Amino acid sequence: LHAAWLGRAVGCLLGKPVEKLPLSAIRDLARATGNWPLNSWFTAKGLPADLAAAHPWNRRSAGTSLAENIDGMPEDDDLNYPLLNLLLLQRHGKNFTTAQLARLWLDELPAGRTFTAERIAYRNLLSGIEPPLTARHRNPFREWIGAAIRADIHGWTHPGDPAAAAAQAYRDASLTHTANGIYGAMFVAATIATAAGGRSDIHQCLRTGLSVIPPRSRLAQAIRFGIDTAHKEPDFEQAVDLIHAIYGHHHWVHVIPNAALLAAALTHADGDFTGSICRAVSGGWDTDSNGATAGSIAGLLAGHPDALPDRWTAPLKNRLATSVPGFAGIGFDTLAHLTHQEALRP
Fold it and tell me: What is the CATH number of domain 77-314?
């Protein structure tokens, strides 16, 4: 669990400066600094001025996520939601209801730190709309990636029990998402639960994740395409181009293209931590979210924080910034201990 928390943070941080940038820009920025295929933090050092002007870093993230600026783990919604779900389990246990999650959000989640489907659901709650209508009422983002980035805790606290992890993720996701948006959370939770069981490789983890969602859904089809493409293409850059050609018509935050890319990255890296996060981020779209989920899964498979390269974990300084009350500045070792306590609860 310590490695999983660290992996999630590292993958998220790696993807933060290039979030929202097109695939071509990510490749150009990395190549210009001798970091392609991607293998380390992004940096502005040595970057030609014309390229920096043509492809500006994510304005909210560059100041804290480029190699020369990293000083602990900065705040991000990809880490805020695991913290909120940890609070949820501490207060209500594994049998929490979607209504209890909604109340927790209103009490502990600043509205300004919500985005897309989560912001719409939050607004609906404030308007007196109750779940599951919160996910459907005037919510054009209900099949985007938001529920999937909240699913880690459900997998972490059900090691070796992917069905229970998926069921818990369903109750969480139903607050904000429908259909493939929910399936994305269930897939991630089950994949992580399998990895947390400690007896599976990445390929078995992904197969198990697929087993809990409708096999004819668009999400399942996309995940299978990502896996198959990664197996067939030895060059991951070529695999990414194929995935973008098929799924590039979706919005960059939609769950379907991102799930295809995540599955491809994990498959191609064969469980390796650096390979997993770098492939996930280098493929574009929702770079910090894909990097975070890939890092969580690959961290679990690594099995121990010392198995993660120091060049990734040392800059985090065992310190997490967050707007979730009670967690500001907390260490990843402490978070692992708290998560383990919830995993042991019936």
Answer: 1.10.4080.10
